[in-house]
């Protein structure tokens, strides 16, 4: 397998844009990524297009990539449509990496886009609710009824985890305070106003113990990444950020074994030949505030049960020992499903280039992205872990 690197990145601001289409969002992100790589659409050999919910929200099915990219100069290229719940973007990157690493192509473009905002919020929430096995009954501890099925699922997991670790709601609020501070420094973030622990705790209860500020929001946006072989990059004088590992796993139908995030992390660490202590900056799937703390443990950033202590220490803050979600994460940067995994790579590439500005983790050399999605047998249905380095 050949070395593969990130050659160009681009993304739109994330937010609620009722007047924008999948085409508009895709075109902006693609344009930014190609300009950043100093290439044109003619230099792209194949395209991996990630989208999770357009069929439900906009009605566009089957040819989402071809229709969204028709005005970008990428028409006529091999375009693969990737749908894999919230992990669609990172799944598309995994396939692009494999395509270049195997020698099938010298270059590939990953595009992740989602338009979730809708005049009828029930349509948006309904899209999320489809990311489960609809024939699988909800667990007895899931208190459905908040209007957001996935927040009900996250709340049930959070309650169990609180009993197990001694965490309390203020620990989740600390995650949000850190996230909003990062978002305030990110011009692409959906939420850019800082907050306090008290404000987080006093925001409207969604699904106990999750308050409004502890939940990622509905949003729209697009992100794109140009990947290429090391030989191609050398010819174009592209500054290298290497993809050292990309691991994808799915949930076991009987719920046995380690969680998907744990298994994907183990595979990625082994592929990259590193361990958690070697990582400097992380973008992880904080669809709810408790999820960030749980993933601290899943990714080996701390020992089991030490997630609350890690957030309280400040080590995961901007510029910390292991900076986590310096983009603002899903909670503040936003969570347009198909774009999320690609946006994580955009942020980490900026961190490794040293161009993240006030969000920069000094001396960042190794970065990790964790993106998961859906629900199956009490676990996320899929998880992808990607490791980058200079």
UniProtKB/TrEMBL annotation:
The keyword Nuclease does not apply. Residues 259-380 form the Thiolase C-terminal domain. InterPro entries: Thiolase (IPR002155), Thiolase-like (IPR016039), Thiolase_C_2 (IPR055140), Thiolase_CS (IPR020613), Thiolase_N (IPR020616). It holds the Pfam family Thiolase_C_1. Its EC number is 2.3.1.176. It comes from Paraburkholderia ginsengiterrae. One of its GO terms (molecular function) is lipid binding. CDD domains: SCP-x_thiolase (cd00829). Keywords: Lipid transport, Lipid-binding, Transferase, Transport. This is propanoyl-CoA C-acyltransferase.
């Amino acid at each position: 397998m050949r070395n593969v690197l990130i050659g160009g990145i681009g993304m739109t601001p994330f937010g609620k844009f009722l007047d924008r289409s999948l085409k508009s969002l895709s075109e902006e992100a693609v344009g930014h990524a190609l300009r950043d790589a100093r290439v044109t659409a003619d230099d792209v050999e194949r395209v991996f297009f990630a989208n999770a919910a357009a069929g439900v929200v906009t009605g566009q099915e089957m040819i989402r990539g071809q229709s969204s990219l028709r005005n970008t100069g990428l028409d006529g290229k091999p375009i693969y449509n990737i749908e894999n719940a919230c992990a669609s973007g990172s799944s598309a990157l995994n396939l692009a990496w494999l395509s270049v690493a195997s020698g099938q192509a010298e270059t590939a473009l990953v595009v992740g886009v989602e338009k979730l905002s809708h005049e009828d919020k029930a349509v948006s929430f309904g899209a999320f609710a489809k990311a489960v096995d609809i024939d699988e009954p909800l667990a007895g501890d899931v208190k459905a009824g908040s209007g957001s099925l996935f927040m009900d699922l996250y709340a049930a997991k959070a309650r169990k985890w609180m009993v197990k670790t001694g965490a309390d709601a203020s620990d989740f609020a600390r995650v949000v305070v850190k996230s909003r501070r990062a978002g305030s420094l990110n011009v692409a973030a959906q939420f850019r106003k800082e907050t306090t622990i008290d404000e987080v705790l006093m925001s409207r209860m969604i699904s106990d113990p999750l308050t409004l500020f502890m939940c990622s929001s509905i949003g729209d946006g697009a992100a794109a990444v140009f990947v290429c072989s090391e030989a191609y990059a050398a010819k174009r004088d592209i500054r290298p950020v290497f993809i050292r590992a990309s691991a994808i796993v799915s949930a076991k139908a009987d719920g046995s074994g380690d969680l998907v995030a744990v298994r994907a992390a183990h595979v990625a660490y082994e592929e990259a030949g590193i361990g958690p202590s070697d990582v400097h900056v992380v973008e992880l799937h904080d669809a709810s505030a408790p999820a960030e703390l749980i993933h601290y443990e899943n990714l080996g950033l701390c020992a089991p049960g030490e997630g609350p202590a890690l957030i309280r220490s400040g080590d995961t803050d901007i510029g910390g020992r292991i900076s986590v979600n310096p983009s603002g994460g899903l909670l503040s940067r936003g969570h347009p499903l198909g774009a999320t995994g690609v946006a994580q790579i955009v942020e980490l590439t900026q961190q490794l280039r040293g161009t993240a500005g006030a969000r920069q983790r000094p001396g960042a050399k190794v970065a990790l992205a964790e993106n998961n999605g859906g629900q199956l047998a009490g676990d996320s249905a899929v998880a992808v872990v990607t490791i980058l380095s200079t």
